[in-house]
Design a protein that fits this description.
657 residues; transport
Length: 657
Amino acid sequence: MASTPKADGSDNVIAAARHIVRSLATTSEAADDMMRILSAFDHRLSTVPGLFSSFPSGDEEDASGSPVNEVEPPSSCAEPSEKEARLKAAERVILHWDPSRPDSLLWDSPETAADYLAAVDEVIALAEVDSLDGAEETLQIAIARLGDEFRNLMIQNADVLDSENLQESIKRLSISFRSASANSAPEDVGESPPPDQPLATRVNTMYLSDEQIFKLICPEGISDLKDIADRMIKAGYRIDLCRVYTSIRCNILGDCLSLLGAGAVTNKEVWSMEWTALDHKMKMWIQAVKLSIGVMSAERQLCQQIIAASDDLREECFDEVAKFCVTQLLKFGDAIAEGQRSTERLFRMLDMYEALAGVLPDIQALFLGDSKDYIWEEIQSVLSRLGETIKNTLAEFGNMIQGDMSKKALPGGEIHPLNRYVMNYVRLLAEYSTLLNQLLEDGSFNGQDSSEGGESMTPLAHRVLLLISYLEANLEEKSKLYEDAGMQNVFLMNNVLYIVNKVKESDLMSLLGDNWVRRRRGQIRRYSTQYLRASWTKVLSCLKEEGLSGSSHGFSKTVLREKFKSFNLAFEEVYKIQSEWKVSDPQLRQELRISISEQVLPAYRAFLGRFGPHLQGGWHSGKYIKYTVEDLERCLEDFFEGLPLPSSYFRRKLSLP
């Protein structure tokens, strides 16, 4: 280009400045600001009188009817290219929305949002083709604004999982979350998805029906979010998009987990919780784990809808959000696994293990590539620690049974509280037989009596045998707290029968089998025989004939009177004591009464029939022959009721017909 005269050069500078200001400034104040900026670059502009003094408003038109701010620069200035003009037009739209004022939302007006997106598209297209001055800077401004809009739209349109929504989902937790397989279709959703269906889509449908997948974003907001995401991806701002997306979604999911009672807590907070609060926390965690499949499936679906323009970025965003959810859940599980071993926590830990192991295949199916392996390893690590804690807690339970040294004898020989606690505990263990057999399959049973079981018994059955053997040994020791040998055997009968009944009424029966029950029945019969010997030998000895013969006149009435008197006193003593003893099981109570009747009543009937006539009709014969056989039979009905009887009760009972 040929050089121009100096004067013309000044004219060109002034003309160009006028054109820039009229093109970009929309008010006289903006024009004044721009004049000061341009004057700092070229002092000649500050010497031109009235250069911008008559700057018109944006609505003012010239004589031809065209807006004044569209006046073309002097012909002596270089004509801007068509691309530069397009860039300037797009800049006007973009710069109109101050990025420092995110409270003024573009998407309040669909038309305004459409214009802004069109301007962004123009800048992206121009920046891709040519390196125009200012294009990249304008694009950065636009992307910053879009990032703010994206964040605001995500927050505004978030369909918050409120407590009512979550509680409804919790009620549906009876639905089985299970992985799809090529050979079986999940019952909840009908047919399996086609094998060629994209994995992400199959994940959303393989085990959750529509009403089970949470709606995380209002449907009307998804299209707007996708429009923004498409531009940010196309412009090369993938990292910025991922950052804003994952930040918002992680915050929302954190709130969701808090609503479920599974919010972030430290190990120290978990370890210092009282059992009631911790038990509630563990139950809520279990529900949260089961619901996490629905939440994370919805997250994948949301990623598909919003970040549709990039498969890699979609996976990256989903991975970040889903890993946050899983990691927060696992932190609590890890704190429980590393915390204090307490027998009261065992069943909650088993529930936690089952819940986490149950969703592992489904959670793993949500991830791809290395993330799939990472999630599997993280969950397996927590499961492994939980499993070890469960086994150690079972060992602690056995130690607790053996170490219970309570020295207070229960009145009446009733079922001991330790027995109730242990058998209810063991009965619950049987309900987790599948899991416990898996955890105990190492075969280390710490020296239990193998004669009770056999090679075919499951690991849990062996462990149950061991625990019951600890209990039986402890009960045997506790029976010695009773001085009365008869009471010792009643106590053992009560407690062994309680163990047998608990086994027969539960899944323990399938673990221990009929032979085990038969052996315990035989044990109860032995205790019954020992009871009869201890309690009734003295009574029956009064009915023996020893000492009655020897008189030349036949029987000695004096000795006979003493025999009847001794029997009366012995029977009354047993009656008074053993009517307060308690045999809870009606069948055992009746069997004991029958056993007593079979020994006492025939002996008394024979003694009374043979020797009673020698005293009847004599002086005070009623003082010695106080009872008929029927009287004794009625008295036996009061045995083992556990009710202390007043002294007059015995006399009233005998007066009954």
